[in-house]
Design goal:
There is one protein chain. By secondary structure, this protein is an alpha/beta fold. It has two domains: 2-20 and 65-148, no CATH class; 151-277, no CATH class. It is built from eight helices and ten strands. It has helices spanning 6-22, 26-38, 42-61, 89-103, 150-153, 166-181, 199-209, 221-235, and strands at residues 2-5, 71-79, 82-85, 130-136, 141-148, 157-161, 189-197, 250-260, 265-272, 278-282. The strands form three sheets. A four-stranded mixed β-sheet has the order 4-2-5-10. A four-stranded mixed β-sheet has the order 6-9-7-8. α1 runs parallel beside α4 (89-103), α2 packs antiparallel against α3 (42-61) and α6 (166-181) runs parallel beside α8. The mean pLDDT is 97.
């Protein structure tokens, strides 16, 4: 049984949060560059240039990419032959999250749902983190992290369709969600689509799809073709960068599909803004 110290996990989580808060990942930066090159609208092209300039300034000056520093979302694969010593893995991730947001001067965004009282002085600074665990073979811990802002999360949707809706129903639903969202999630967007499973499985899959490298090709040929189709349809909406009109509304569409019940077709659409702050580490 391999052992990993509690404090090792804390430091790793702290470091990736601080890094992600100021340094836009290479895949997101390159996707914005490609969008800039392909944009037909002069106005949206200028907006995309400003987004790239903002990313450069944030990295050079080590300042947050956006005032909305998001909620901390993790997908964690835990090997069955590894053990965290000195405390619980969940506690280590939460402690690392708190330190990362505090030390990185990132906004504390968690609050009570109705009173809206900030929880930084009670539960903890930007706590609790949203953590999805999965037990896997091996002796490693894989941690995927993303900062999920409110603007993009607010326009995300989930629905259970009848099976007869088929691919066309999925395409039209994604178009409806993104069209209704308009400029609110700060496009150009990465769009995660969860298909199948159950209501909650589809929602979690659509969130996890956002962690995939932007522009990567789906391993399933059928889903890869569907991703391309949906992306093309979304870019025809004309929303453009930050809603200014144009041809580059989305940077990528990523689908995660799962087997589902014969009587239903769950579909979830989870949206990420242009500042796709995500990273992956292995301990």
């Amino acid at each position: 049984m391999r052992e990993i110290a509690f404090d090792t996990v804390v430091k790793a989580v702290r470091d990736i949060i601080m890094h992600s808060g100021t340094d836009l990942p290479k895949d997101a930066y390159e996707a914005l560059q490609k969008a800039y090159e392909q944009e037909k609208s002069p106005v949206s092209k200028e907006v995309l240039k400003q987004l790239l300039d903002n990313a450069d300034i944030a990295k050079d000056e080590q300042r947050p990419l956006c005032q909305d520093t998001g909620l901390a979302v993790f997908f964690v694969k835990v090997g069955e032959e590894v053990k965290v010593t000195g405390g619980l893995l969940k506690d280590a991730i939460n402690k690392g999250t708190e330190l990362g947001y505090q030390d990185g001067y990132l906004r504390a965004s968690t609050c009570e749902p109705f009173s809206r009282a900030n929880l930084k002085d009670t539960v903890g600074y930007n706590l609790p983190a949203i953590i999805h665990f999965d037990l896997v073979a091996g002796d490693k811990i894989e941690i995927e992290y993303a900062a999920k802002g409110g603007g993009s999360e607010n326009v995300s949707r989930a629905r259970v369709f009848p099976p007869a809706a088929g691919k066309e129903g999925v395409i039209e639903y994604v178009k409806e969600v993104i069209s209704d969202a308009g400029p609110n999630p700060c496009p150009p967007l990465t769009v995660g689509v969860g298909i199948g499973g159950t209501f909650e499985k589809a929602a979690i899959s659509s969130k996890h799809a956002l962690f995939r490298e932007i522009g990567s090709v789906n391993e399933d040929a059928e889903m890869a073709e569907l991703e391309t189709t949906i992306k093309d349809e979304l870019n025809k909406l004309g929303i453009g960068a930050m809603g200014m009109g144009g041809t580059q509304t989305v940077l990528a569409v990523h689908i995660e599909a799962n087997p589902c019940h014969i009587a239903s077709l769950p579909v979830s659409v989870n949206v990420q803004c242009h500042s796709s702050r995500h990273t992956h580490i292995t301990l």
